[in-house]
Amino acid sequence: MPRHALAVRSLIVASTIAALGLGGAPAVADEHPTIPRFSSTPTPAAGPVTDVAPARYAIPGSPAAHHFAYAHNPLRECVFYPVDGRTQVVCSVAFPPGTPSVKADPFSGPPNAIILTSSGTRPTIVEGGPVTAPDLPVDHRITVAGISCRTIAENSVKCAGPGGGFRFLNGTLTTW
Predict the structure, then answer these.
(1) For residue 168, what are the β-bridge partners?
(2) What is the annotated signal peptide range for this record (predicted)?
(3) Quick check: 141 pLDDT over 80?
(4) β-sheet bridge partners, residue 135
(5) Taking Cα atoms as reference points, which of 85, 75, 92 lies closest to residue 134?
(6) Per-residue pLDDT at 46
């Protein structure tokens, strides 16, 4: 299966279902290279935020897992899922050229997604498939177990939780 933007069902099957069923961790980077920070520009002013019910974005057959799409050209999606009793979110994003490679079994290479956990962010590699998540419209926010993601502009997302966060805006990834 070719690597491309995150498609939630394949992510769940390839790297997360084992974690959901067996209490293990999903495929994430074994080494944690620093994610370059290319922008300290604040998030642009946006319209009023509409909170959505997580149940609308639930993944059938995957307890406590939720997904949404925030871009379609290329397809970019995020998925919330529990690992060892804690929720985390992984979103497909573009990393800047020169970002160090990561190892996320069975993959090794340039990262194409970012994970936000209770301890911060880290790059990873995900593989996609044919199932597409429902869209999260601009200026809408979904919150699952203390982690919130909001579409802040077309093709852009901002996720934050107790351990930090990230923003992918106009093709630029910023972490904190």
Answers:
(1) 157, 173
(2) 1-29
(3) yes
(4) 69
(5) 75
(6) 60
Q: Tokens 């911060």 appear where?
A: 120
Q: What is the pLDDT of residues 16-37, one digit of tens each?
A: 322 323 233 333 333 333 344 3
The encoded tokens of residue 157 equal 């997302």
* Residue 152 and residue 169 in contact, taking contact as beta carbons nearer than 8 Å: yes
Cα-atom radius of gyration of the chain, to the nearest Å?
15
> Residue 42 corresponds to which tokens in the numbers above?
């604040």
Distance of CA 50 to the CA centre of its chain: 20
Task: For residues 42 and 111, give the distance between their C-alpha atoms in angstroms, rounded to a whole number.
Answer: 24
- How far are the Cα atoms of 45, 48, 65, 149 from residue 90, in angstroms, in the given order? 25, 25, 11, 11
Number of H helices, E strands in the chain: 2, 13
Strands, sheet with 86-92, edge to edge from the N-terminal-most edge strand:
66-72, 75-83, 86-92, 113-117, 120-124
C-alpha 99/C-alpha 34 separation (Å) is 8
Report field, pTM of the whole predicted structure over 0.85 = no
Distance CA 50, CA 105 (A): 37
pLDDT over threshold 60, residue 176: yes
- What is the spatial distance between Cα 176 and Cα 172, in angstroms, rounded to a whole number? 14
Q: Are 146 and 18 in contact (CB under 8 A)?
A: no
